[in-house]
């Protein structure tokens, strides 16, 4: 079934009902929906001048400014695909992504020159010549052109071959996600959502789409401020944020820095967390601070399934057994699932329209993660093999139990250890390598550790620059352990279990 994309109609409804409603709130400024959409139409004109059309792709380096958010809205209105990239991305990784995407242009909102240019335009009132009636009229006309089957955005994840994988998501999937989130987390026009997640990170899909397209307020937090937890908490408290969404790592860091207090964040109604496992012992410490005033929701969802596909509401019964991770929850009504070999425990396979159509430029559909099944009725059903091992209870509750491969979640980022190994092995002086994700216990921060055997004994000849040129900071090993040779198992493969055992006995 195809029908018109209704993201534009959602914006249209907000402009008709309350154009002065605050869309973005910073520490010292506010941006109304009227102003934000005015800027969006400036970008629509700019995109048209550059010859960028529906289904073209652009790259955005995002700093959570009103300009950048307006550009994303412009892309949504026009049906232009975009991908947000880390501004610190290494050159080779950027080049690989550009080869995959073949973007028409890029916008860099970390460029002082570009921002100054936009601000001058604003001062001259050059972009504010669109009155409300004009915007409403244009939205009515444009909104007819974009279909739910069209691609909305592309998010990149780690790839085992050394090349990142581009995950495209359709407009229909985004719309379903917005509607589900509104109901699940009781998002209303009076809600204020935290913008804690980097824009190149999958969790940011919730921040942006579930605030702007539900007509409430987004409170963007600059990434350079994130490590100052006291400042972040004070900002969210001061601006009366109602919905928190972050990775558990950030919450644990806030606990460690003693920034979370019962007399702060009193306005928060929902603490939402996901992107990695949250051990119940640390979760209990967090829960005890705010359980009288807020609900706690653990969410799960690979990028390939449109941000979130399951949720679990924490209560006191969650902590009857502390020797485990928090459950990843019950599947959303927009998803379906099965367990491999129809067992209670096995690989989780996600099914339905929320699933990505497949990785960018995987023309021959060689990637075994996706499977398309055509029914006798002609209906096409997408399957995504997550690689996550789960156990499902009789009532459908999912619990995470491990992985089928070498993929990990580190600080919320999905990382293929094989990608790190690939780049280490490209060093001409390396004979063997094996990368391990190590946690001393379930409460500790994990470390990416690289075991390396060199062709000679001179560790100084190991070229670290190869990793700097190819990997983002969160994927670089925190430690290198150099050995004469790496242990092998009876099959002649590097013995990962033995290396893990050695780390546990340090």
What does this protein look like?
By secondary structure, this protein is an alpha/beta fold. The chain is 30% helix and 25% strand. A hairpin with a 2-residue loop joins strand 20 and strand 21 (413-416). The model has no long low-confidence stretch (mean pLDDT 88). Among the domains are: 336-403, Luciferase, domain 3 (Roll), CATH 2.30.38.10; 414-504, GMP Synthetase, Chain A, domain 3, CATH 3.30.300.30. The relative contact order is 0.09. The strands form 8 sheets. It has a 5-stranded mixed β-sheet with strand order 10-11-12-13-14. Strands 15, 16, 17, 18 and 19 form a 5-stranded antiparallel β-sheet that branches. A 3-stranded parallel β-sheet has the order 4-3-5, covered by helices on one side. It contains 14 helices and 24 strands.
List the helices and strands and how they pair.
Layout: H1 7-17, E1 22-25, E2 30-32, H2 33-49, E3 57-61, H3 66-78, E4 81-85, H4 91-101, E5 105-108, H5 112-123, H6 132-142, E6 151-157, E7 165-170, H7 171-184, E8 192-195, H8 204-212, E9 217-220, H9 229-238, E10 243-246, H10 248-256, E11 270-274, H11 280-290, E12 295-300, E13 310-313, E14 330-331, E15 336-339, E16 345-351, E17 370-374, E18 380-392, E19 398-403, E20 407-410, E21 413-416, H12 417-425, E22 430-438, E23 447-454, H13 465-470, E24 479-482, H14 496-504
Parallel strand pairs: 3-4, 3-5, 8-9, 10-11, 11-12, 23-24
Antiparallel strand pairs: 1-2, 6-7, 12-13, 13-14, 15-16, 16-18, 17-18, 18-19, 20-21, 22-23
Helix pairs in contact: 1-6, 2-3, 10-11
């Amino acid at each position: 079934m195809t029908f018109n994309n209704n993201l534009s109609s959602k914006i249209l409804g907000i402009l008709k009902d309350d154009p002065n409603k605050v869309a973005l709130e910073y520490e010292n400024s506010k941006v109304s929906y009227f102003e934000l959409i005015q800027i969006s139409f400036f970008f629509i004109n700019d995109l048209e001048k550059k010859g960028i059309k529906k289904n073209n792709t652009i790259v955005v380096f995002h700093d959570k400014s009103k300009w950048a958010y307006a550009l994303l809205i412009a892309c949504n209105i026009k049906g232009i695909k975009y991908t947000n990239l880390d501004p610190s991305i290494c050159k080779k990784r950027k080049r690989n992504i550009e080869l995959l995407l073949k973007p028409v242009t890029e916008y860099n909102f970390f460029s002082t020159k570009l921002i100054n240019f936009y601000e001058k335009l604003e001062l001259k009132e050059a972009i504010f010549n669109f009155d409300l009636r004009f915007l409403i009229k244009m939205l009515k006309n444009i909104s007819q052109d974009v279909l739910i089957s069209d691609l909305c955005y592309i998010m990149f994840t780690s790839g085992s071959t050394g090349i990142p994988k581009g995950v495209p998501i359709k407009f229909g999937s985004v719309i379903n996600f917005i509607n589900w989130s509104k109901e699940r987390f009781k998002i209303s026009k009076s809600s204020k959502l935290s913008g804690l997640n980097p824009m190149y990170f999958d969790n940011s899909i919730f921040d942006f789409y579930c605030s702007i397209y539900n007509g409430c307020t987004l409170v963007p937090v600059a990434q350079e401020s994130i490590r100052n937890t006291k400042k972040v908490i004070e900002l969210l408290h001061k601006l009366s944020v109602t919905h928190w969404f972050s990775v558990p790592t950030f919450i644990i860091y806030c606990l460690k820095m003693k920034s979370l207090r019962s007399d702060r964040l009193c306005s928060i109604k929902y603490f939402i967390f996901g992107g990695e496992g949250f051990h119940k012992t640390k979760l209990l410490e967090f829960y005890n601070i705010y359980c009288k005033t807020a609900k706690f929701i653990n969410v799960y969802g690979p990028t390939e399934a449109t941000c979130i596909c399951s949720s679990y509401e924490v209560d006191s019964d969650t902590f009857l057994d502390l020797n485990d991770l928090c459950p990843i929850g019950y599947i959303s009504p927009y998803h379906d699932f099965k367990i491999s070999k129809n067992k209670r425990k096995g690989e989780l396979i996600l099914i339905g329209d929320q699933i990505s159509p497949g990785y960018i430029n995987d023309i021959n559909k060689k990637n075994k993660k996706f499977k398309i099944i055509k029914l006798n009725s002609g209906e096409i059903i997408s399957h995504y093999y997550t690689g996550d091992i789960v156990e499902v209870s009789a009532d459908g509750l999912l619990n995470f139990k491990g992985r089928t491969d070498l993929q990990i979640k580190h600080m919320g980022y999905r990382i293929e250890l094989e990608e790190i190994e690939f780049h280490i092995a490209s060093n001409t002086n390396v004979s063997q390598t094996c990368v391990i994700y190590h946690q001393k216990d379930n409460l500790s921060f994990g470390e990416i550790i690289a075991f390396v055997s060199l062709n000679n004994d001179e560790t100084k000849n190991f070229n670290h620059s190869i990793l700097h040129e190819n990997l983002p900071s969160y994927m670089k090993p925190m430690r290198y352990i150099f050995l004469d040779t790496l242990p092998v198992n009876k099959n002649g493969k590097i013995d990962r279990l033995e290396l893990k055992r050695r780390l546990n006995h340090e």
